[in-house]
Amino acid sequence: MQTHTYDVVIVGAGGAGMRAALESSGRARTAVVSKLYPTRSHTGAAQGGMCAALANVEEDNWEWHTFDTVKGGDYLVDQDAAEVMAKEAIDAVLDLERMGLPFNRTPEGKIDQRRFGGHTRNHGEAPVRRSCYAADRTGHMILQTLYQQCVKQDVEFFNEFYVFDVILTGDPRTDPDVRAAGVVAYELATGEIHVIRAKSIVFATGGAGKVYKTTSNAHTLTGDGMAVAYRKGIPLEDMEFFQFHPTGLAGLGILLSEAARGEGGILRNGSGERFMERYAPTIKDLAPRDIVARSMANEVREGRGAGPNKDYVLLDLTHLEPAHIDAKLPDITEFARTYLGVEPYTEPVPVYPTAHYAMGGIPTNITTQVLRNNTDVVPGLFAAGEVACVSVHGSNRLGTNSLLDINVFGKRAGIAAAEYAATAELVDVPEGAHLDVEKELVRIAAGSGTEKVAAIRKDLQESMDLNAQVFRTDESLRQAIKDIDALRERYANVGVSDRGTSYNTELVEAIELGFLIDLAEVVVVGALARKESRGGHFREDFPDRDDTEFMVHTMAYPTSEPGAGEGGSTVRLDYKPVVVTRYQPMERKY
Ligand SMILES: Cc1cc2nc3c(=O)[nH]c(=O)nc-3n(C[C@H](O)[C@H](O)[C@H](O)COP(=O)(O)OP(=O)(O)OC[C@H]3O[C@@H](n4cnc5c(N)ncnc54)[C@H](O)[C@@H]3O)c2cc1C
């Protein structure tokens, strides 16, 4: 076991982690710990854009952006946080421009902007051009730009180090003096365990899309940071709200950016009808994702799907000029050719909703400090990006608001972590703090378990796709809880065939699977208790939004006793009020 000491340790080298590192490395001794080589982080897969009310192309302002974000999130958004994000968006884009990010330009040389779902002029009148972009490779450009700046600033990286635990001085559920002391990491190349002590710890570990089978997310998005914090007794907020992106390649889940519709693409059902005209008469195909995904699933359920099994709908780009497609959507049209053998110039592309984004996560305040209950923070612990829930996305995130979120709150996290470290004392690491991780690794790697990681993961993902996807019912969610219970028992008997210490990816996948099981249970238990429909969470048995009972954030805690939680689960639920400033909830129509 090795020990290291820093002022600030940032877990995750995606957009949020590196944006934080750029702020903190100049002010405090900072290390970034990442299970992936930084430029392999999922931020690099983001396609469509990052929004800010620059008003470069048409009239716009941050207040309209705040309103759209609140309405898009079906009023579960904390409005103070949304306002911070929309205001700071403009500088966030300009910061990236100054760092050298090659945005697409207008003929006059300004940063160009395009349309995206739910972003409107004057509170819903018509779609507005708010998304800044670099073709359909915006995330790739952001990640590369931030990495270059980190290299320039000599940020220290621990690459291919997996953080499997966070060290706290007490139980955040009961100990008001609990502080963050460090993290425990596993080095992939050697199998060695490292304890990294720090005054400030920033979690920036990204999303958890691998809870589902059909997903746009990379294989590595297993929600590690969320699960690590949760296991220690830190609540997870609003986890039942998962975004299903409308346009995954049918049968595969690989993403075709909403930019395709922003540039004029149209969704059609099996008989060629532009069905979104029926569901969202004003902004049609550019309605927010929850509405479009549900409308698509509904077309298929009512027998109006396309293809031999009528199990998908079509994204039609054939009316766009090939030169326009090549200039604005080069990568995603190539995906259609490569993975489905479809030529988007001349044929519509088969698409179906795919699990895309976790609206929930580790609760934080607007300075990114982690909350241990509805009000109190854990000093020294911060979170930003998809792992966090601040909550700017409420129950449904608008497209291009996440690349924005990671830049705005990543920056805030870096500043807050460095400022805290400037005055705080280093906390002692309790004796044997690394032993839980060591024991679990030994149990799996050296034990006699016979269950295979891939088999349990497949069963988990299939149950989640079947029972907790776009449409949910009491019955389907109870079935998911039963399935997860059984899978947890099988997981207790998991084993790996690779017993080596160098690059044992089978072993780390086993640990990641444990995280997925815990998170799936939190998603499902929260969804079962939320007897209403709002944003990404749609209950067929409770199809309306219920502001009297449920205009609240879900806070999920692990129980100390197995089975002592909601409906015999290991999850205890509590609720937290939503921050409302200017916008009273209204019916959500587009
Ligand atoms: C295909 C796709 C397209 C998208 N397009 C857009 C878009 O156009 N616009 C938009 O706004 N949003 C988009 N999104 C969403 C957006 O890209 C993500 O929400 C955002 O990039 C997440 O950034 P992040 O920094 O929080 O996490 P990530 O970029 O996922 O980075 C996570 C980091 O954490 C590290 N990590 C994870 N677990 C551990 C661990 N246990 N130990 C150590 N390190 C760990 C990883 O190595 C990685 O460096 C898209 C998402 C996908 C999947």
TrEMBL record:
<keyword id="KW-0816">Tricarboxylic acid cycle</keyword>
<dbReference type="InterPro" id="IPR011281">
    <property type="entry name" value="Succ_DH_flav_su_fwd"/>
</dbReference>
<dbReference type="GO" id="GO:0005886">
    <property type="term" value="C:plasma membrane"/>
</dbReference>
<dbReference type="InterPro" id="IPR027477">
    <property type="entry name" value="Succ_DH/fumarate_Rdtase_cat_sf"/>
</dbReference>
<dbReference type="GO" id="GO:0022900">
    <property type="term" value="P:electron transport chain"/>
</dbReference>
<feature type="binding site">
    <location>
        <position position="397"/>
    </location>
    <ligand>
        <name>substrate</name>
    </ligand>
</feature>
<comment type="similarity">
    <text>Belongs to the FAD-dependent oxidoreductase 2 family. FRD/SDH subfamily.</text>
</comment>
<dbReference type="InterPro" id="IPR030664">
    <property type="entry name" value="SdhA/FrdA/AprA"/>
</dbReference>
<dbReference type="GO" id="GO:0009061">
    <property type="term" value="P:anaerobic respiration"/>
</dbReference>
<feature type="domain" description="FAD-dependent oxidoreductase 2 FAD-binding">
    <location>
        <begin position="7"/>
        <end position="403"/>
    </location>
</feature>
<feature type="domain" description="Fumarate reductase/succinate dehydrogenase flavoprotein-like C-terminal">
    <location>
        <begin position="457"/>
        <end position="590"/>
    </location>
</feature>
<keyword id="KW-0285">Flavoprotein</keyword>
<dbReference type="GO" id="GO:0033765">
    <property type="term" value="F:steroid dehydrogenase activity, acting on the CH-CH group of donors"/>
</dbReference>
<keyword id="KW-0560">Oxidoreductase</keyword>
<dbReference type="InterPro" id="IPR003952">
    <property type="entry name" value="FRD_SDH_FAD_BS"/>
</dbReference>
<dbReference type="Pfam" id="PF00890">
    <property type="entry name" value="FAD_binding_2"/>
</dbReference>
<dbReference type="GO" id="GO:0050660">
    <property type="term" value="F:flavin adenine dinucleotide binding"/>
</dbReference>
<feature type="binding site">
    <location>
        <begin position="12"/>
        <end position="17"/>
    </location>
    <ligand>
        <name>FAD</name>
    </ligand>
</feature>
<feature type="modified residue" description="Tele-8alpha-FAD histidine">
    <location>
        <position position="42"/>
    </location>
</feature>
<dbReference type="GO" id="GO:0009055">
    <property type="term" value="F:electron transfer activity"/>
</dbReference>
<feature type="active site" description="Proton acceptor">
    <location>
        <position position="289"/>
    </location>
</feature>
<keyword id="KW-0813">Transport</keyword>
<feature type="binding site">
    <location>
        <begin position="402"/>
        <end position="403"/>
    </location>
    <ligand>
        <name>FAD</name>
    </ligand>
</feature>
<dbReference type="Pfam" id="PF02910">
    <property type="entry name" value="Succ_DH_flav_C"/>
</dbReference>
<feature type="binding site">
    <location>
        <begin position="34"/>
        <end position="49"/>
    </location>
    <ligand>
        <name>FAD</name>
    </ligand>
</feature>
<dbReference type="InterPro" id="IPR036188">
    <property type="entry name" value="FAD/NAD-bd_sf"/>
</dbReference>
<feature type="binding site">
    <location>
        <position position="356"/>
    </location>
    <ligand>
        <name>substrate</name>
    </ligand>
</feature>
<protein>
    <recommendedName>
        <fullName>Succinate dehydrogenase flavoprotein subunit</fullName>
        <ecNumber>1.3.5.1</ecNumber>
    </recommendedName>
</protein>
<keyword id="KW-0472">Membrane</keyword>
<dbReference type="InterPro" id="IPR037099">
    <property type="entry name" value="Fum_R/Succ_DH_flav-like_C_sf"/>
</dbReference>
<dbReference type="InterPro" id="IPR003953">
    <property type="entry name" value="FAD-dep_OxRdtase_2_FAD-bd"/>
</dbReference>
<dbReference type="InterPro" id="IPR014006">
    <property type="entry name" value="Succ_Dhase_FrdA_Gneg"/>
</dbReference>
<dbReference type="GO" id="GO:0006099">
    <property type="term" value="P:tricarboxylic acid cycle"/>
</dbReference>
<dbReference type="GO" id="GO:0008177">
    <property type="term" value="F:succinate dehydrogenase (quinone) activity"/>
</dbReference>
<comment type="pathway">
    <text>Carbohydrate metabolism; tricarboxylic acid cycle; fumarate from succinate (bacterial route): step 1/1.</text>
</comment>
<dbReference type="InterPro" id="IPR015939">
    <property type="entry name" value="Fum_Rdtase/Succ_DH_flav-like_C"/>
</dbReference>
<feature type="binding site">
    <location>
        <position position="257"/>
    </location>
    <ligand>
        <name>substrate</name>
    </ligand>
</feature>
<feature type="binding site">
    <location>
        <position position="245"/>
    </location>
    <ligand>
        <name>substrate</name>
    </ligand>
</feature>
<feature type="binding site">
    <location>
        <position position="224"/>
    </location>
    <ligand>
        <name>FAD</name>
    </ligand>
</feature>
<keyword id="KW-0249">Electron transport</keyword>
<feature type="binding site">
    <location>
        <position position="386"/>
    </location>
    <ligand>
        <name>FAD</name>
    </ligand>
</feature>
<keyword id="KW-0274">FAD</keyword>
